[in-house]
């Protein structure tokens, strides 16, 4: 094995194990940031719609043309999803046309119907004779406890508006769309803070791109893997000091259940050509990024869900391990961005409020 091959193998091992690797050595080929947006991948558009009655909304990631090869994993203990079974490698449908992420708990899954309706009007979807059936998996976060109006939740009109707003421009981040009512740091002994939506993308020198869009609404606190320091999460009683999430976990401060049910959901997109089985492996590896940035991750109160879309527009060679390692990095970056760019709401300060 060459030196570079050994380094790649170790990086992938760290990604699978969820270990924070040491800083990259100088002189090794490095990925380049792509402006922080998954829309750097050709054919991918993103749209948000944010409700005004209380902080909640929905977000849609759209794959143009026939769609993208799709896969997904649901490692969280309290998921709310739709159309995840069809993503299994052994099942018939290969291509996904869009993914919907929404607030509103199970009620928010209705946002998906609006996206399905508009795509059907456009003739987009799996062809069944003369009919096109849009393939649109979805996942939700629980944000009904934020804003004092649990009766206000995203519905089909939210999905329609988000889809019509979708563009390939810079992705709006922070307290928008599905992240408008997101909160983080629901650990015993602390006060929660504001979560949100974040987007990140990495490009290798040969043009491979792997990006992620994450909605962070976790029981755990958010840690920057590059520094090991909390960015947002459980606050001390003074409302300005972040408690150490590692210390809280060691002291048993993780609740068996949370009054503000949680979930971190997202979409990983790559321009690599992949099968559904390969995309599933990327989804499994991408979980490491969530575990690096959220402490603790995958609790019984979190419905953590990750989708993977592979567009196939990259004409070079990309190994599954390389794509999976980049996916974990992009997921962690997007989660950190989601809280750094969030805006506080009454009762839930943002990271920018305590600097």
Please, could you describe this protein's structure?
By secondary structure, this protein is α+β, with helices and mostly antiparallel strands. It has a single domain (31-353), classed as L-amino peptidase D-ALA esterase/amidase (4-Layer Sandwich). The chain is built from 6 helices and 19 strands. It has helices at 3-17, 111-121, 156-165, 245-250, 276-293, 320-340, and strands at residues 32-33, 44-50, 57-63, 68-73, 81-82, 95-96, 98-102, 126-128, 131-133, 138-140, 183-184, 193-194, 196-203, 209-217, 221-224, 229-232, 263-270, 294-295, 305-310. The strands form 5 sheets. It has a 7-stranded mixed beta sheet. The protein has a 5-stranded mixed beta sheet with strand order 2-3-7-10-5. Helix 1 packs across helix 5 (276-293), helix 1 (3-17) packs across helix 6 and helix 5 (276-293) packs parallel to helix 6 (320-340). It is globular, with a radius of gyration of 19 Å. The termini are far apart. Residues 1-35 have low confidence and may be disordered.
Whole-number mean pLDDT:
87
**CATH H level: which superfamily?**
L-amino peptidase D-ALA esterase/amidase
Question: Helical segment tally?
Answer: 6
Determine the fraction of residues in helical runs and give it as a percent range: 10-25%
Question: At CATH's second level, what is the architecture?
Answer: 4-Layer Sandwich
- Principal-axes geometry comes out as globular
Sheet with most strands:
7 strands, mixed
């Amino acid at each position: 094995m060459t030196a570079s091959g050994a380094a790649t193998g170790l990086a992938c091992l760290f990604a699978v194990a969820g270990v924070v690797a040491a800083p990259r050595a100088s002189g090794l080929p490095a990925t380049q940031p792509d402006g922080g947006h998954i829309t750097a991948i050709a054919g991918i558009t993103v749209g948000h719609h944010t409700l005004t009655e209380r902080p909640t909304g929905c977000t849609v990631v759209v794959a143009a043309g026939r769609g993208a090869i799709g896969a997904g994993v649901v490692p969280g203990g309290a998921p709310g999803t739709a159309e995840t079974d069809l993503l299994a490698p052994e099942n018939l449908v290969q291509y996904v046309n869009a993914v919907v992420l929404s607030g509103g708990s199970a009620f928010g899954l209705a946002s998906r119907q609006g996206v399905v309706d508009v795509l059907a009007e456009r003739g987009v979807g799996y062809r069944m004779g003369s009919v096109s059936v849009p393939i649109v998996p979805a996942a939700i976060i629980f944000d009904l406890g934020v804003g004092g109006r649990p009766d206000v939740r995203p519905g089909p009109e939210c999905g329609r508006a988000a889809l019509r707003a979708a563009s390939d421009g810079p992705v709006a981040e922070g307290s928008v769309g599905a992240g408008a009512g997101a909160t983080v740091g629901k650990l015993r002994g602390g006060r929660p803070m504001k979560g949100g939506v974040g987007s990140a993308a990495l490009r290798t020198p040969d043009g491979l791109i792997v990006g992620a869009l994450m909605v962070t609404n976790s029981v755990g606190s958010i840690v920057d893997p590059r520094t090991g320091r909390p960015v947002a999460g459980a606050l001390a009683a003074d409302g300005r000091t972040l408690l150490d999430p590692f210390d809280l976990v060691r002291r048993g401060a993780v609740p068996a259940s949370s009054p503000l049910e949680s979930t971190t959901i997202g979409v990983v997109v790559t321009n690599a050509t992949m099968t559904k089985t390969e995309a599933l492996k990327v989804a499994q590896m991408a979980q490491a990024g969530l575990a690096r940035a959220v402490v603790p991750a995958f609790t019984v109160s979190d419905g953590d869900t990750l989708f993977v879309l592979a567009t196939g527009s990259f004409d070079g060679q990309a190994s599954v391990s390389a794509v999976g390692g980049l996916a974990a990095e992009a997921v962690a970056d997007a989660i950190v961005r989601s809280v750094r760019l969030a805006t506080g709401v009454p009762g839930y300060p943002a990271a920018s409020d305590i600097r």
